[in-house]
Amino acid sequence: MKLRLSVQSGSLSGQDRELQSGSLLLGRGPDCALQFNPAVDNMVSTRHATLQVEPDGFYVVDNNSTNGTYLNGQRVAGKARLNNGDVVELGVQGPRIVISIAAPQPVAPPPAPVYAPVTAPPPPAPYPATNPPRGYAPAASSFQPQFNAPPSGIRHTITNLGLYNPDRVQPKQSSSGKYIGIAVGIIISLILGVIVLGLVLLELNPIVAIIAAIVAFTPVVVYILPLLWLDRYDPEPPWALASAFLWGGLAAIVFSFIVNTALGLVAAGVAGREAGNIVGAVISAPIMEEASKGLGVVLLLIFLRREFDDIVDGIVYGGVIALGFATVENVFYYGRSLQANGFGGLIFLFFIRGILSPFAHVTFTAMTGIGCGIARESYKPAVRFIMPLVGYIGAVTLHMIWNGMATFLGAGFFIGYLVFEVPFFLAFVGFMIFVARRENKILRESLAMEVARGLIPQEHLNIATSAFKRTGWVFGGKFSARRKYLRAISKLGMSYWHVQLAQAAQSQTRSLPQIPILQSEIMQLREQV
Predict the structure, then answer these.
(1) Side-chain-side CA neighbours of residue 94 (13 Å)
(2) Rounded to an integer, what distance in angstroms lies between the CA atom of residue 158 and that of residue 298?
(3) Contact of 63 with 452, CB cutoff 8 Å
């Protein structure tokens, strides 16, 4: 059987397509086999409908389009079987498509050969078979996206973040290269760890350092839970979160300590020791600490773009970096307080830093993370360049206000805390809830087509977009396969969303070539879960 469709109206009027196997995607998106012009066919959705082959014939599937798909004047609910002569409309008075279905012509058998048969060599070993899920038809392979390679060079690094360039796509890293990279990372972490340990032992005796470290690191398990809750729909890989924590606790700490100490000495030499302390606390520390932490967020944005998808990820990575920084910084504070004032001083300081303000650094650096997240979502060069800088300025401002209250207000710090910090923190929590719900909506809307086509069961999408169901399902058995399966579903939804954003900005994105890879991964993992 062969289906032939003829577009009778709209921006693609006069075009024909044939379908014998697989499927054809109709809509305005760049991944559509029939891509309609949004300026002419504004009633057509990005991925409006799919024509697909099933064992018993051809079907039209409505992908939850805004204006509906109509078959012979009747709106399609889900999917409907096609017959010869049917008329499909994409939206009311939208493009009309006439369907023609023809049976294959019988082919006469070839005449018997008159020569002697020859023994054929054995066939090559087949590739491992992949069983697609029942009812799923793979996307048509006729679509070959074309891209214009963006400029290269250091000066284009920021303005071209996220642009897909085939010339920059490298082959998969070899095992030896992977292990070399891991080894280099471990060596650098060990060197920075030794430096931090040395700095601690220069100020604190070993017993005090151990006690301070226990008090500082133990609550981290509790502090990180809100960030993991925020990241529930598209969880970041543990190794990426660990790298972020190490950056904050090692690299950012070392950089900030060296620069703050140097600037404090200069200020003390010029204006006196007290003035040097004020300059270091209120000016140098906010600028340099947020710069060192923010640099880690920017590096993650540049080098982990497959993991860094949106504002949520910006807050998560920025928060984890800040948590690593604050934890190691607290070792110094707790140790100094224990040496100077005993356990009473340690308990009081833990109340201030560990209970009243454990998320102070997190909210500061989260501003840079939000700026980087907005840059990741945008495909406008100016936005991608400006927003991380705007976020950094916000982080420095909040940090200066916090340190300024602690430096100048004395006991009045608690009034400032109640009047300014508490309302701001509640507003920040509200924003976290908003962006989490937004990410849930993005995944549901972006994956509606794959649910309609049968790649992802509706039940599995419901699990992927529910924190409680997702956690219970993963830990209910087949942990590794289910975790990878749900993560592939989330990544596919975010990839579709980035394609839409890039199309709206008339740009390109590396997320587009990831779509068929993720579809294949979902097909394989679905059989294992």
Answers:
(1) 30
(2) 10
(3) yes
CA dist 312 → 29, 330, 341, 386, 492 (Å): 25, 26, 41, 19, 17
Rounded Cα distance between 374 and 302, Å, is: 14
CA angle (484 as vertex; 521, 125 as ends), nearest 5? 40
Q: What is the pLDDT of residues 169-219, one digit of tens each?
A: 344 444 465 567 677 778 888 888 888 888 888 889 999 999 999 999 999
CA-wise closest residue to 263 among 277, 248, 250, 251: 277
Cβ(36)–Cβ(75) below 8 Å: no
Q: Are 92 and 67 in contact (CB under 8 A)?
A: yes
Token couple for 366: 């989260």
- What's at 215, amino acid-wise? V
* Pairing of β 69-71 and β 96-102: unpaired
Q: Check residue 116 and report its DSSP letter.
A: P
Q: Which residue has the tokens 């997702």?
A: 470
CA distance 92 to 113: 58
- Radius of gyration for the chain, computed over Cα atoms and rounded to the nearest angstrom: 29
Contact 3, 97 (CB under 8 A): no
44, 158 contact by CB (below 8 A): no
The answer to pTM > 0.85 is no
3-state secondary structure at position 52: strand
Alpha helices in 231-359 (DSSP H): 238-246, 252-271, 273-278, 285-303, 311-350
Residue with tokens 């024909």: 16
Count of Cβ atoms closer than 10 Å to residue 232 Cβ: 18
State both tokens at 479: 């942990």
Q: What is the DSSP string of 218-242?
A: TTHHHHTHHHHHHTSSSPPPHHHHH
Higher pLDDT: 294 or 200? It is 294
**Distance (Å, whole) CA 123 – CA 529:** 33
Residues 6+ apart with CB under 8 A from 97: 5, 6, 7, 8, 26, 87, 88, 89, 90
Segment 438-452, tens digit of pLDDT = 999 999 988 988 888
Q: Are strands 74-75 and 69-71 parallel, antiparallel or unpaired?
A: antiparallel
| Identity of the residue numbered 406 | A
- Residue where the block lists tokens 């719900």: 437
Positive or negative torsion for Cα 384, 385, 391, 392: positive
What does the alpha-carbon distance between residue 45 and residue 156 come to, in Å, rounded to a whole number?
A: 33
Name the amino acid, one letter, at 217. F
Average pLDDT, the chain: 83
Residue 11 burial (CB < 10 Å; 0-12/13-18/19+)? middle
The encoded tokens of residue 325 equal: 């920084």
CB 131 within 8 A of CB 525: no
